[in-house]
Amino acid sequence: MSKSRNLGEFEILVLAALVRLGDDAYGVTIRQEIENRAERSVTVGALYTTLARLEDKKFVASRMGEATPERGGRAKRYFEMTDEGRAHFERSISSLGAMLKGLRPWPKTLRISH
Amino acid sequence: MSKSRNLGEFEILVLAALVRLGDDAYGVTIRQEIENRAERSVTVGALYTTLARLEDKKFVASRMGEATPERGGRAKRYFEMTDEGRAHFERSISSLGAMLKGLRPWPKTLRISH
DNA sequence: GTATTAATTCTATATTGTAGAATAAATAGC
DNA sequence: GCTATTTATTCTACAATATAGAATTAATAC
To answer: N or C, which end of chain B is more exposed by having fewer CB within 10 Å?
Structure first.
C-alpha cells in the first residue's frame, strides 16, 4: 500500500477542474478548463496520466459515458472526485491558502455551489 | 539548460514562507513557518533539498549569516526569493487562484507588505 | 470497408517530494 | 586545547509526480 502523501500541484488543478465542471468532466473538458482558466498549457498525456494516478489512489472515480455521441468519436470517460479525494483536496488547499493568504496576487473567495 | 516548468506544491509553500519571513528566512524558521501555518509536517531533508533545487534554478538566493550566534551552533544560511523566482511564484499562485477561486475552503485576501 | 472524428491509452523520461542519518561549526566548561 | 552541547546544514537514496507526444481505439458517415 502506498503511503498517503500530499497532492501535487497539477493534481490540485485537475481536482479543482473536476469540481468546476461537475457532470461534464471528462478528458477534453478538463483540459480546456485548466488551459483557459489557469492559463497554462496541458498536454493530453500529462492529464490522463494524472487522472489515472488519482483513480489508483481512489481520489477520483470514473465511468464511461453513453456510447452514442452525436457525431463520431470514441466514448467519453467521465470523472468525479470521491469523498476521500475531497478530504485530501481540502487539506491541500487549506495549507496553500494558509501560506498564501495575504500575499498579493491572491484572489477573493466567492463560493460556488458544487 | 533545463526547461522552465511549473513550480511544485512544496516549492510553492517554501517560497511563500520566504515571503512571509522576510529577513529571518533560514532553514529552521522556514520549516517552522510551514509546519505551523500550513499544519503539515516538513522533514529537514525535504526542506533543504528543495531549497537547494530552487537555488540551482535561481529562484532563490542564499547568504551565510553572521558567524556569531549568541550561543553555540552552526551559522545560518538565509534565503530570499529572486526576481525570477517571484515571476514563477506569481504565475503559479495565479493559476491556482484562478482554479480555486470560489471553491469553499478558500481564504479571503488581506494583503501584507512584503 | 474506408475515411473522418473524438477521445483515450501507452511508454519513456525528467523533475519534484520525502526521509533521516551524517556532518559541520560554533560556544562553554574544565 | 579537549570534550560536551547546541544549532543548523549537507548528503544520499529512493518514491511519486509531471510531462510529452505518438499510438491506438471506437464511433459515425459515405
So the answer is: N
